[in-house]
Structures are given as C-alpha cells and as structure tokens.
Amino acid sequence: MPRRAGFTLMEVMIVAAVMAVLLMASLPRFQHTAERLRIEQRVFEFAQLLRYARERAVAQSRDAFWVWDDDARRAHLEQADELGRPERLEERAALSAPLLEGATLTVTMDGQRSACDCVQFLPDGTASPSLIRVTLDDLSYTVAIDAATGQAKVAAGAAAR
User: Fold this and answer.
1) With contact defined as beta carbons under 8 Å apart, do 39 and 100 qualify?
2) What is the domain-level CATH number for residue 94?
3) In a domain, 3, yes or no
C-alpha cells in the first residue's frame, strides 16, 4: 500500500512542543516591548499637551500651565483668567490619559524639583525652563522645554539639554 503524503501525529506534536517553548521564551520580550510603547505614547502625549499649552498662551495672550496631578496620575491644562488666576480647562484636548502604574513622573526647573509640578507658558511664547522625566523600570524619557522658545522636545535615556 502506498504511503500517504502528510505528517504523523508524533511529528505534529513535536513541532507544537517546540513552538510552545519558543513562544514562552519570547513572551517576556514582547511584554517589555508593549510596555515601552505604552510609555512612549504617554510621553509623546505629554509633549503634545505642552505644545497645546504654548499655543493657547500665545493665541489668547494669557499665561497657560501644564500641570501634573500626581493623585490622578495625569496632566491637565490651566489658563489664567482676567485676574491672572489659573483656571482648569475642561475641554477634552486639555487632559492626558493616565500614566501607567509603576511609572514615575518628575518635573524639574533649573535642576531643582518643581514645587507645583507644572510648566508655565507666557503669551510671548516663552516658558519656564523645565524637564519632565518619565521612568518605568529601565525605561527613561525626558521632555525638555526650551525657555526661550517654549518648544518641547522628547529624548529617550539621558536628560535632553
């Protein structure tokens, strides 16, 4: 009787076992990559919110503030009212998604921890010179705000200058 083309059950089981071992070995790497991508997404979202705060300050000729809320683990925007007092903006574009659990965010100005965990943007387009550092395990991202131009730049690893 001629032999049929195909695989035996034993061959299929061996291939399945090898594939399972390879998948289990690569799973931690995939999880690390997914975690890195989620952190990067939040950092770029923070940078976009900083750019939006600068644009509002210039367009409306009022100070605008990027504010980190440690309890809610998210950033939001505030803008000065007619008397110069900050008011929280309630529009959706003025609020970030929450930062991942386990990640930390610090705001520094001139090398010192910011008392308000905020960045101020002035109507002339300038800003308080600030660094926002987001870290999670071995991942580190920095958003540097240039005081003269108010521009936000993202860098991975060491602090941007």
Assistant:
1) yes
2) 3.55.40.10
3) no
Q: Is the dihedral of CA 120, 64, 73, 156 positive or negative?
A: negative
Six-digit token string for 75: 């950033």
Q: Residues of 69-108 as b/e, b for ≥16 C-beta within 10 angstroms? A: eeeebbbbbbbbeeeeebeebeeeebbbeebeeebebebb
Beta bridge partners of 137: none
Q: Answer whether residue 114 shows pLDDT above 80.
A: yes
Chain Cα centroid distance, residue 71: 17
Does 161 map to a domain?
Answer: no
pTM for this one? 0.79
Q: What is the pLDDT of residues 125-141, one digit of tens each?
A: 999 999 999 999 889 99
Residue 80 resides in a domain: yes
Tokens of residue 48, six digits: 């976009």
